[in-house]
Amino acid sequence: ESGLVGVWQVMLSLGVTPKLTIEDALNMPFYRKKDDTSPLPEYLFSCSRHGMTHQDILKAMDTLSNGRISGRFFEFYPQRRKQWYQRRVRGRTEKAQSA
């Protein structure tokens, strides 16, 4: 649930009200649950897939904000200087503010 809670916190900090409750969002296809009622092998497999990938987080952000918020993950390898990230983020936020 931490990925979805993170999405919620970003949306609220940007002043965007999610279109669903968090309980409803937990039932969306981008969130994978543990299967608590299955035999041990299936349960362990569901635990390994539990939660959200980075792609799921971006899809959840887009879906729950009705397309008002989009995101991007930056790779940390190869290592880049801090200024490289600052330029990328600054450019994105300036575009969003002018739109």
Reconstruct the topology from this structure.
Blueprint: H1 2-13, H2 22-25, H3 40-49, H4 54-64, H5 82-98
Tell me, rounded to a whole number, the average pLDDT: 76
The first-to-last residue Cα distance is 32 Å
Continuous helix count: 5
Q: What fraction strand?
A: under 5%
Question: Could you say which structural class the secondary elements and strand pairing correspond to?
Answer: mainly alpha
Sheet bearing the most strands, described?
none
What is the succession of H and E elements?
A: HHHHH
Low-confidence spans: none
Radius of gyration: 17 Å
Task: Describe this structure as you would to a colleague.
The protein is mainly α and 99 residues long. The chain has five helices and no strands. The protein has helices spanning 2-13, 22-25, 40-49, 54-64, 82-98. The chain starts with a helix and ends with a helix. The model has no long low-confidence stretch (mean pLDDT 76).
List the main descriptive attributes of the protein structure presented here.
single chain; 99 residues; mainly alpha; 5 helices
Summarize the structure.
The chain is mainly alpha-helical and 99 residues long. The chain is built from 5 helices and no strands.
